[in-house]
What we know:
CATH class of the largest domain: Mainly Beta
Number of helices: 0
Order of helices and strands: EEEEEEEEEEEEE
CATH architecture of the largest domain: Sandwich
Number of domains: 2
Distance between the termini: 47 Å
CATH superfamily of the largest domain: Immunoglobulins
Radius of gyration: 24 Å
Strand content: 35-45%
Oligomer: single chain
Number of strands: 13
Strand order of the largest sheet: 2-8-7-4-5
Helix content: under 10%
Structural class: mainly beta
Amino acid sequence: MNGQEVTTDTITRDYIWYDAEDEDVADVIIASPYRGKSITVEQYEQLDIPYTIYNRLSSTSAVNYYEGDTLLDTVTVTNNGIFSYAFETFGNKTVRIAVGETSLSFNVIVTESSADIAPVTGAVINFDPTSLTNNSVNRLPTWTYNNQTYHMTVSDNFNWANDISGGGYKEDVDGKCFVIKAGTYAEIDYKMFK
């Protein structure tokens, strides 16, 4: 166009061919454009693996997602789905999509995250939740800087439950952290830009 080469988005299709008269055809076939390809993703980044299921016994399929031998989730799909997953650790991993005895495995190289998730120190607001719990009387921290006090508030629907359903102060592999669940928020009244 106007002397310039134009490239549109690539369209990828998976076709599954079988002989309907052949009784030895598998009952379930799983196809994916990622089959046999090298997959590399950074730790904590979401990996999306599209796939197509042919199930000659049913119009829907119960699809199991695995990391190694650990079952992550079970979903029901008609024909197409996307296996979405973010790895918490880095290294060589295997993920698998399975319907009954039929499965398709993918080798994934997970590189170490480049994000620095270490606590910020020496800042105006140094959030250190070590001494706080969801049951603390004063569980919302305050900070003082230049004779000004700053507060953290949370949304009215914030769930302080100590089980996995709740947010707030939790323990992970790196120690204590503050979890904010989807649909809720935490806000600090410090204005970073004036």
